[in-house]
Fold Putative NBD/HSP70 family sugar kinase.
Amino acid sequence: MRMTDAMRAVFVELLVHGPLSRAEVARRLDLSPSALTKVAKPLLDAGYLREQSSDGQKGIGRPSQPLQVDASRSSFIGIKLTAEELFAVRVDLAATVHDRFSLPLPDHDVDTIVEQIAQAVRRLSEAGDVAGVGISLAGTATPGDPVVGNSPFLGWSHVALAKLVEDAVGVPTVLNNDVRALTAAQQWFGAGVGHSSFALVTVGAGIGCGLVVEDRVVTGRSGGTGLIGHLAIDDRGPLCELGHRGCARAFAASSAIRRSIATTLDRPELTFDDCLELARQGQPVARRVLDDAGRALGRVIATVANVIGPDLVILSGEAVHMYDVCADALQAALTRHTHWTSTPVRVTVKPFTFDEWARGAAVSALQHLLLHS
Ligand SMILES: [Zn+2]
């Protein structure tokens, strides 16, 4: 269905903030009641919106029949590519995950991966048509650009992945950097709702950052923004895999934390979660490494906050459960490195499941196709 700008505005307002009364939608979008009626009618007729039954409403009097998006009206598939696997989910319009699927990637040959993606899309489309496919990966990829600029872990450079997938599955396909895709999901369906400027900092295999400034996910030139993983923290620190001494990643990436503790204790069998448990128990080496990691993250968050002045910073990612072990060091560093004219930004810790990467990719497709087609 082709939406006018006014229809799109009403739909997005209800998708992100609904259900809302007609009066509230009209007020938020500066529409007259009759203009809203005219804009909402085709959306109601096509099943994208529905009137909430008054049963669920509190109070008495004239039923106000709030409007809401019918989340079941459309589905999107999100796919996250890692070096070893493809993770896929099918979501509804409210970004609720209804099905998931994963496949190992036998190699990084482009045709092979396109065929694996097509297989995932076919499998997840069995329950009904999908309106779009989103694909996210670590590297330079931007919604609206069908080409993956660079993906070091796949060994790809200038691969027209969106076009290849569209040709294979016949569904509009949108690419995005994985952290920016998560940021889009937080903006419309997560802790970012209601905040015009926020940052998402992820911690896991790397340190990532997505930025929303004045209601826009910032993509930058060639898709390079939020590249804070190698921010210099302390030049007496450990080395990262690129040879920087004491960058954020060398202190706070989960693999760096694990390696540092396992090597010092000569216990190569330790997992990352074992290391967190040792720190919780007060084991001195683990404690020191997690304190250093917390300090590095606090400094990263302060730096991001000093640069963009966000309403809040959302901390998430595969290793975000380390927060409870390093929160004191993180908050102390955040206070210390926040510019003296500001108060430290509020940090919201968002628990993470691996599905969220693929869900973010689906939201990227939803967001891009809704706003730009
Ligand atoms: Zn580095």
In short: Confidence is low (pLDDT under 50) at residues 59-63.
